[in-house]
Specification:
Length: 822
C-alpha cells in the first residue's frame, strides 16, 4: 500500500503552531466571489473543501453515484452493487482501524473490503470506473470558480483539503476534468485524508499548517461540513467559513422531495441514483423569508423548468423528424408553462388558445355515439342542469328538462331517455356543428396553422379531454396532425401514438400517475391565467367567457408565485450554461416526479399558509368551484372518521387537495395516503389503529331496555368514535360515561344512515343530533368539556323516529379515568 512518504500514519505527529481558537463564520454562495477581497490583506492561503464546495454532484447524496456505478464494467460483472459498495467501505475503514490505527482508506482498500482476493488489474479497473462515474455526475460550482479566479488574481496560494477515499492524483483528475483551465491552474497543494491517515476533524489541518509553513490565521478555509470544515479548523486558529447551501425551509423542501421520489419511483436507490439536478441552483440564491418565494422558486420552479425543457426538446424533435410543429398552449392552465418556455428559449413559443373542457365537449358531438359516450362518462354525476348546458340544449328546453327529471321517479333514466330521443340528438348535433365552426375559426386565427402542419396541444394533462374530443374533428377539417404534450399524461387507449408527458407511463407506472392526478388542482391554480373560462366564440373566433368564478384576490396572490417560477427558470438555465452541463432529461423527469409528489402530499407550513383559501374553477362553464383544502375541517373530519374521511366525494363538502389536510395533521398521515395511492394498498377501518375504548350503553325501545358494552375506535388526537346502531322506529340511547371517566371531552353527536356510513357522500346524509341530547350526572365545565361527577352519569340521546336504519356516532376524548374522581 502506497503512503505519502512525508505523512506517517502511525505514531506521533509534529505539533501544529499554537494559535487561539476562532469562531467559525457562515457564508452563502453569493458571498464566495467576495471572500478574497475581504481577506486578501491578511490571508496568504485560501483552503477549499472539494465536494459540495468546488465540485457539486447532480445527485441527492454521494452514495447515489454508486447506484449508477453498479451498472459499469467491472462492477456489474462482480455483482458489486451500491449496497456492497457502502458496506465494503465500512469494512475497509474498520480493518484499517484495527491494522494501523486510522479509519482513512483509499479505493483499493474499499474494493478489497468486499473482495479481499482482487488482483491489482481489477482494482485499477474498478477505480477507473468509479472515477468515470464521478465525472459524469460532478460539475464545478460557478461561484467557487469565481472565487478560485479571484484568489489567483490576488496572488493567494490555493489548496484543496478533502476527506476522501481518492488519492491526490485521482482527485486532481476530477478537478482538472470539471474546472475551467484557469480555475484549475489556481490550485496548488491537494491534501487527501486517505493519504495523510486522518480526516479534517481528527488532525488533517495540522498537516496542512505544517506543510504550508504558515500560521493558522493566515489560512482561510471554506467548506460545507460544519464539523470538518468549520469547527475543526477554527479550533486551530484557522479562519473557518462554513458554506451553507440552503436555508432551513429550502433544506426541508429538498429533503421531502427526495422522500416523495423514493416512494413514487421504486427504481430510485435500487437501480439508479436519486437525482437532484437543482441543488446548485437553489444553493446560489440568497435567503428570503418569503412564502411566495419558497412556493414558487423552490417548490414549483423545478417542476415547470423541467416541463419547459421537455416541451422545447419535443418541439425540436418534431422538427428534426421533418414535421412542422405549431404549439398551441391551452388556456388557462398552460399560461405559466408557455411563459417558462419563452423564458428558456429567449423568444416567443407557440400561441395561447382558449379551449376549455366545456368547449372540447361542445364541439365534439358529430354522431349519436358521441352523445352516448358523453352520457356514459357524465350522467352518473346527476348534474342535470350542467349536462343540459354542455349538450347545447336551448335554455328553455334545458329548464323544462331539468324540472321534469327532478320530479321523475327515476331522474337519471328520464334524462337519458330525453337526450337520446332522435329529435333531441338532431338538435344537439346541429348546435355542435355550428359551435365547431367557431372553435376552428378561433384556433386558426390564433395559431395561423396551415394544412400539413402538426398541431401540438400543450396542457397540464391528464387524460387529455380536449385532444380526445377534438383530434378527429381537427385532423379531418384542418388537414393537420394533432399530438399533445402534457405535464402528466395518464394512460389512455393508443396514447403512445400521439401524446407524451413529462410524466407518463413510459417513465412511471400507472399507479404513480394515479397517485398524483386527483390532487393536481394545486398546480392548476398556480399555472393559470386570470381569464374566466371560455364558453363560446363570436363568429370571428373571439372568445366569449363566463363570469369570473375565482376571486381577483386569489390571482393577485398567484402572480408573485409565477414570477418566482420564471426567476427560477432563468437562473437554472443560466447556471447550467455556466457549468456547460445541462441535466439529462431522464433526471429532470424524475426530479419533477418527486417535486410534484412533495408539493401535493408534503407541503411546508409556509406553503400551506400561503395557499389557505385558494379555490379551483372546474372550467366547465358552470359557477362551480372547490376549495383546495381546509385544515380545520380536515382535523374535524379526522376526529370523526379517521383517515376514511378521504373517501368523501360529496360536491358539497369536497376539497380538491385533502392530502394537504393530512400533512397539516401529521407527516405520517400524508405518507400513509401517498403509499395507499401509489401501491394500491387496501385498509379497513379496523386496520388504522388498535387502540379502543369499551363504553357501557343502555338502549331502550318503549318499555324495554338492554345494557351492552360497545367498542369505540381511535380516530385522531386522542379521540374515539363510538357507533351505536339505531333501528327503525323509536329508540333511545344512554351512554354511561360516568362508569369509565371522571372527565371527558365530546366533539360531536351525529346521526347517519347506515348505508351512508364511510361512503363517498356521508357528510350530505349526516345530521347533527346535539338537539336531541341531554345529560344526567355530568356537568359541562367548558365548551365540549364535561366532568362526570356521578359514577352513574350518562349522555342521553332521544333521536326522532325514522323508517331507516341509522347509526348514532359519538366522538369523544377521555380526559381522566373514573378512578381519579374526587
Amino acid at each position: 500500500m502506497r503512503q505519502n512518504p512525508t505523512a506517517p500514519v502511525n505514531g506521533a505527529r509534529p505539533a501544529a503552531p499554537a494559535a487561539a481558537p476562532r469562531r467559525p463564520l457562515t457564508v452563502r454562495a453569493q458571498d464566495l466571489p467576495r471572500l478574497v477581497a475581504t481577506h486578501a490583506a491578511s490571508a496568504r492561503v485560501l483552503s477549499l473543501d472539494c465536494f459540495d464546495t468546488i465540485l457539486f454532484r447532480d445527485t441527492a447524496a454521494p452514495v447515489d453515484v454508486f447506484y449508477d456505478l453498479a451498472h459499469r464494467e467491472p462492477f456489474q460483472r462482480l455483482g458489486f452493487s451500491a449496497k456492497l459498495r457502502v458496506s465494503a467501505e465500512s469494512m475497509a475503514r474498520s480493518l484499517r482501524r484495527v491494522r494501523s490505527g486510522t479509519s482513512e482508506v483509499t479505493l483499493d482498500h474499499v474494493y478489497r473490503g468486499a473482495f479481499p482476493d482482487l488482483d491489482d488489474a481489477t482494482v485499477r479497473a474498478l477505480a477507473e470506473a468509479e472515477l468515470a462515474e464521478e465525472l459524469r455526475h460532478c460539475f464545478a460550482f460557478p461561484p467557487t470558480v469565481e472565487l478560485l479566479r479571484a484568489a489567483k488574481e490576488h496572488g493567494l496560494r490555493v489548496v484543496v483539503v478533502s476527506d476522501t477515499y481518492f488519492r491526490e492524483a485521482e482527485l486532481r483528475r476530477l478537478l482538472e476534468s470539471t474546472l475551467p483551465a484557469d480555475a484549475f491552474a489556481a490550485i496548488g497543494r491537494v491534501f487527501c485524508s486517505s493519504e495523510y491517515g486522518r480526516s479534517k476533524s481528527t488532525g488533517l489541518f495540522e498537516d496542512v499548517i505544517e506543510r504550508l509553513a504558515v500560521s493558522p490565521d493566515a489560512i482561510v478555509h471554506v467548506g460545507d461540513n460544519e464539523r470538518a470544515d468549520a469547527l475543526a479548523p477554527a479550533q486551530l486558529g484557522i479562519r473557518a467559513l462554513h458554506f451553507v447551501h440552503h436555508a432551513s425551509p429550502t433544506q426541508q423542501v429538498v429533503r421531502l422531495t427526495s422522500t416523495a421520489l423514493s416512494l413514487l419511483d421504486p427504481s430510485v436507490r435500487h437501480e439508479r441514483a436519486l437525482p437532484s439536478p437543482f441543488h446548485a441552483v437553489l444553493a446560489q440564491k440568497p435567503d428570503r423569508n418569503d412564502a411566495g418565494h419558497l412556493l414558487g422558486y423552490v417548490g414549483v420552479g423545478p417542476i415547470l423548468y423541467a416541463f419547459g425543457r421537455f416541451l422545447l426538446d419535443e418541439l425540436a424533435e418534431l422538427e428534426r423528424r421533418g414535421e412542422r410543429p405549431c404549439a398551441a398552449f391551452l388556456m388557462r392552465d398552460a399560461y405559466l408553462p408557455r411563459r417558462v418556455c419563452e423564458a428558456l428559449a429567449g423568444h416567443p413559443v407557440g400561441a395561447s388558445v382558449s379551449i376549455s373542457r366545456f368547449v372540447a365537449h361542445a364541439a365534439s358531438f358529430r354522431a349519436r355515439a358521441d352523445v352516448e359516450r358523453y352520457l356514459a362518462r357524465s350522467a352518473g354525476s346527476r348534474r342535470f342542469e350542467a349536462m343540459a348546458k354542455q349538450l347545447l340544449l336551448p335554455e328553455r328546453e334545458a329548464a323544462r328538462l331539468v324540472a321534469e327529471v327532478t320530479a321523475a321517479e327515476r331522474p337519471l333514466d328520464r334524462f337519458i331517455e330525453h337526450v337520446l330521443a332522435p329529435k333531441t340528438v338532431e338538435r344537439i348535433l346541429a348546435a355542435s356543428a355550428q359551435y365547431r365552426k367557431r372553435v376552428i375559426r378561433h384556433l386558426v386565427e390564433t395559431t395561423k396553422i396551415e394544412r400539413g402542419q402538426t398541431l401540438v396541444l400543450v396542457d397540464l394533462g391528464y387524460e387529455g379531454t380536449v385532444q380526445q374530443r377534438l383530434t378527429p374533428v381537427l385532423e379531418e377539417e384542418l388537414g393537420v396532425r394533432v399530438v399533445s404534450r402534457y405535464l402528466i399524461a395518464s394512460r389512455v387507449p393508443g396514447w403512445e401514438g400521439n401524446r407524451r408527458g413529462l410524466l407518463d407511463p413510459a417513465l412511471c407506472d400507472d399507479r404513480a400517475i394515479a397517485a398524483l392526478v386527483p390532487y393536481v388542482a394545486l398546480l392548476e391554480d398556480l399555472c393559470t391565467s386570470d381569464d374566466a373560462s371560455v364558453v363560446d366564440y363570436l363568429e370571428d373566433g373571439t372568445p366569449i367567457r363566463a363570469d369570473h368564478v375565482i376571486s381577483r384576490e386569489q390571482f393577485e396572490r398567484i402572480l408573485p408565485v409565477q414570477e418566482e417560477v420564471l426567476a427560477f427558470a432563468r437562473d437554472a438555465e443560466s447556471l447550467f450554461a455556466r457549468t456547460g452541463k445541462r441535466p439529462e432529461m431522464t433526471a429532470l423527469r424524475r426530479a419533477a416526479l418527486g417535486a410534484i409528489g412533495r408539493i401535493l402530499f408534503m407541503p411546508t407550513e409556509a406553503e400551506m399558509e400561503y395557499l389557505q383559501g385558494f379555490r379551483l374553477d372546474m372550467n366547465l362553464a358552470t359557477i362551480d368551484s372547490f376549495a383546495l383544502f381546509d385544515r380545520e375541517r380536515g382535523l374535524a373530519d379526522l376526529r370523526r372518521r379517521g383517515l376514511f374521511f378521504m373517501m368523501e366525494k360529496s360536491q358539497h363538502s369536497q376539497r380538491m387537495n385533502t392530502p394537504i389536510e393530512l400533512r397539516a395533521a401529521g407527516l405520517e398521515l400524508s405518507l400513509s395516503m401517498l403509499a395507499h395511492h401509489r401501491y394500491a394498498l387496501a385498509f379497513s377501518v379496523g386496520d388504522t389503529s388498535l387502540r379502543t375504548e369499551s363504553v357501557p350503553v343502555v338502549i331502550s325501545r318503549g318499555t324495554q331496555s338492554a345494557s351492552d358494552t360497545l367498542v369505540a375506535r381511535a380516530t385522531h388526537e386522542g379521540y374515539f368514535s363510538l357507533l351505536v346502531p339505531v333501528m327503525p322506529g323509536g329508540q333511545h340511547v344512554a351512554i354511561l360515561f360516568g362508569q369509565r371517566y371522571s372527565w371527558v371531552q365530546i366533539d360531536s353527536v351525529e346521526l347517519i344512515p347506515t348505508a351512508k356510513l364511510y361512503g363517498d357522500a356521508e357528510s350530505e346524509a349526516t345530521e347533527d343530533a346535539s338537539a336531541f341530547v341531554r345529560i344526567e350526572g355530568i356537568d359541562q365545565k367548558a365548551p365540549g368539556v364535561f366532568e362526570c361527577r356521578d359514577p352513574l352519569g350518562f349522555l342521553f340521546v332521544a333521536p326522532p323516529p325514522s323508517h331507516e336504519h341509522r347509526v348514532l356516532r359519538v366522538v369523544f376524548r377521555p380526559l381522566a379515568p373514573a378512578s381519579e374522581r374526587g
